[in-house]
């Protein structure tokens, strides 16, 4: 059995008169309007069904009665707008305010957005007025300074929030002709693209490990035979002079004239020849030999390492006259053949005419010296038919063109009849390298332990080496490869070109 007040509310909705609407049961009507399925509103829902009204009809008449009861009176919003008196309990006032906001919120009335917004604004102003009138007369001043201002701000914020929500709902309703799932998909796709753009971070390029660069030019080995042959007689002469100075007695004051000293010094020494030094020619007699030794004692230039005993003061004048005459007899010095330990006034020995010094051939480049070159097996008559010393330079040019990705410079090293692994034509090799250069951002190649030798017939040059290749693929990954590579060069005019490459 339904309560009596529910039947009274149902009859008021059926008749559409506010005089029969009990204001004490207004909260129950508001609860039914906000949520008809609420268990506390089940009795009222049953009574409405009993009078023959549907929920839609009953809700429309309930809004009409509430408009007549709460919003059609003149004057500013007050407690009457909430359906209360001025001295109502604040807790009941807050409960009535929350239920009125739930019923008149613009989100529940998308078809009557402006109407619901105006009702919500009046409810907020009425609640603010009720909050300002609560409390005793002594506490109203503090309420206006503390409670009224926050409540007013809260009311304004709630009003703005309700207006913004109503505007958004209205904009969403305008998109009804366009499929909303498509709009949502476009929005999600845009957010995804923005996130990917912000999170994109290009990885730094990986630098390949630096490898030793082979020498591109043939370096001539320094000729050590000529300086050694020139320094050897000088060292022997210094030793002989030191031995003679050790065995000589202290030189007395010179009694001979200056021309006699020059005559003794003008004799060519026997140590200047490139061959083994021979003993000096025997003098005509012992008396002349003793006189020559005594006269020539102060003449030679003293060695810095082995110095003779000091001469008496009277011998300083002849020594000063003899020393400037020595450079006149000496040939012009050769800078590159002067030994570092040679005395300042020593005469550089001239090579013996009977034994000419043969020129030293240049040594192979530094890269080829890592492994001994194989002696060619060709006959002696064909060994000079081709010169393979330019192979390291050609491989250096190959390496530079490969590292730089210069297709034209690289293919200029290939013969028109070149073959490389499974590529039988020059154009096939060119297309392969063009595709390889476009697929790799950075590449490096190095050759080590190079072996170069002519072929058996002496018409071509064969080379074998270990290679190391490092490159960056299209995704930026570093890859290293190594192995053995074989080259075959053929002469084309004045240079060698690649005829066969296999690895």
From TrEMBL:
Residues 299-315, 346-365 have a biased composition (Pro residues). It comes from Thiobaca trueperi. Keywords: Chaperone. CDD domains: DnaJ (cd06257). Residues 210-381 are annotated as: Disordered. Residues 77-135 form the J domain. Coiled coil: none annotated. This is J domain-containing protein. It comes from the Bacteria. InterPro entries: DnaJ_domain, J_dom_sf, NTF2-like_dom_sf. Residues 264-276 have a biased composition (Basic and acidic residues). Residues 215-228 have a biased composition (Polar residues).
């Amino acid at each position: 059995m339904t309560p009596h007040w529910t039947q009274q509310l149902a009859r008021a909705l059926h008749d559409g008169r506010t005089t029969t609407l009990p204001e004490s049961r207004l909260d129950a009507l508001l609860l039914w309007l906000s949520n008809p399925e609420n268990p506390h509103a089940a009795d009222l829902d049953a009574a409405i069904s009993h009078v023959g009204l549907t929920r839609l009809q009953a809700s429309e008449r309930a809004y009409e009665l509430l408009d007549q009861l709460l919003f059609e009176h003149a004057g500013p919003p007050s407690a009457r707008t909430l359906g209360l008196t001025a001295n109502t309990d604040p807790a009941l006032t807050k409960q009535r305010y929350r239920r009125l906001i739930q019923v008149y919120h613009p989100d529940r009335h998308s078809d009557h957005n402006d109407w619901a917004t105006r009702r919500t604004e009046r409810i907020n102003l009425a609640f603010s007025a009720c909050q300002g009138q609560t409390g005793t007369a002594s506490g109203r001043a503090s309420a206006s300074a503390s409670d009224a201002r926050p409540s007013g701000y809260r009311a304004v914020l709630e009003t703005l929030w309700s207006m913004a929500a109503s505007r958004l709902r209205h904009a969403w309703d305008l998109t009804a002709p366009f499929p909303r799932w498509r709009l949502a998909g476009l929005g999600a796709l845009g957010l995804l693209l923005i996130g990917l753009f912000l999170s994109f971070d290009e990885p730094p390029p990986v630098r390949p490990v630096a490898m030793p660069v082979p020498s591109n030019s043939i370096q001539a080995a320094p000729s050590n035979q000529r300086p050694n042959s020139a320094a050897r007689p000088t060292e022997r002469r210094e030793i002989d002079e030191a031995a003679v100075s050790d065995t000589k007695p202290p030189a007395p004051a010179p009694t001979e004239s200056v021309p006699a000293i020059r005559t003794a010094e003008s004799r060519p020494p026997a140590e200047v020849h490139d061959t083994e030094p021979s003993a000096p020619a025997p003098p005509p007699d012992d008396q002349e030999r003793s006189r020559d030794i005594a006269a020539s004692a102060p003449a030679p230039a003293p060695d810095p390492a082995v110095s003779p005993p000091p001469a008496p003061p009277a011998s300083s004048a002849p020594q000063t006259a003899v020393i400037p005459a020595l450079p006149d007899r000496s040939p012009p010095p050769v800078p590159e053949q002067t030994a570092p330990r040679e005395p300042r006034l020593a005469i550089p020995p001239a090579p013996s005419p009977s034994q000419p010094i043969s020129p030293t051939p240049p040594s192979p480049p530094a890269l080829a010296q890592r492994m001994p070159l194989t002696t060619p097996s060709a006959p002696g008559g064909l060994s000079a038919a081709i010169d393979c010393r330019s192979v390291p330079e050609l491989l250096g040019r190959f390496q530079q063109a490969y590292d730089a990705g210069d297709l034209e410079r690289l293919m200029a090293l290939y013969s028109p009849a070149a073959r490389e692994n499974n590529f039988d034509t020059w154009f096939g090799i060119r297309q392969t390298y063009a595709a390889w250069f476009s697929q790799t951002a950075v590449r490096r190649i190095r050759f080590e332990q190079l072996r170069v030798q002519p072929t058996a017939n002496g018409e071509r040059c064969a080379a074998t080496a270990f290679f190391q290749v490092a490159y960056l693929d299209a995704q930026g990954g570093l890859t290293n490869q190594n192995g053995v590579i074989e080259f075959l060069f053929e002469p084309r005019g004045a240079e060698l070109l690649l005829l066969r490459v296999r690895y």
